[in-house]
Amino acid sequence: MTSAWFEEDTRVSETLAYDFVNSPCIRVDVGTDTEMKSFTGSILPVISDSSARERDTEEGIEKYQQEEFDGEYGHENEDIITVNQAQDQFLALSKLYVLAEQLLDGTTKNAAFAALAAHAKDADFTILPNEASVYVIYEGKTDGNKARQWLIDLYVDHGGTRAFGSSELGYQSEFIADVADGLLATRIKPGFHEHLRDQLKFAEGMLQKDADDLAGAKDSIRTRDYQIEQLQKEVKKLRRST
What we know:
mainly alpha
């Protein structure tokens, strides 16, 4: 069982997206023709009051200049921000996936699923969809659905029961049962220990054979050294006699 879904990543990279704008804001168009709606958002980092005050000092100014040069900005509670952003993305994609299937939009559904898989991979499978995303997919999908199975495989392969954390009660009971079944299915099957013991005995036998061969080789070397030593003695005797 594996959660490595090899789907084409249809998302637009940040580099390509930012190439279309030359301002601190980005516009997102949703829909087409008369149904289109536009939204504008800032792409600059949010700077807290404390961070702003820090930049009034000489050290703060140097740090700010370095951040500008590197294109990287420090955030308070950066790990929390990253996790929250990841979960928001999982939730949005889950809703899009369910909506696309309800509308029989196969193209969007496949793109949303590919984005879900890619998003999990981007996080190196350290951040898994939380109870909110699980609820959306489980409530909107039927048994055996690809997204459902992907969630199960994701938790079995990369999370286990510890992935539920303190929010276990927030997860769908059906999902918890599915993950438990998946974990049980991946346990060592009957007969595996016997097979492993046989393999171990075979390996021990091979090691013993190698040890015996090595001991035999050492004996041969000692015998040869003794023979050489005797020959050298005979040569010395012959030289003295002449």
